Amino acid sequence: MNSFNLSLAALCCVVVVLGGLPFSSNAQLDNSFYRDTCPNVHSIVREVLRNVSKTDPRILASLIRLHFHDCFVQGCDASILLNTTSTITSEQTAFGNNNSIRGLDVVNQIKTAVENACPNTVSCADILALAAEISSVLANGPDWKVPLGRRDSLTANLTLANINLPSPAFNLTQLKSNFDNQGLDATDLVALSGAHTIGRGQCRFFVDRLYNFSNTGNPDPTLNTTYLQTLRTICPNGGPGSTLTDLDPATPDTFDSAYYSNLRIQKGLFRSDQVLSSTSGADTIAIVNSFNNNQTLFFEAFKASMIKMSRIKVLTGSQGEIRKQCNFVNGNSGLATKVTRESSEDGIVSSY
Question: Is 47 annotated as a binding residue?
Answer without folding.
Answer: no
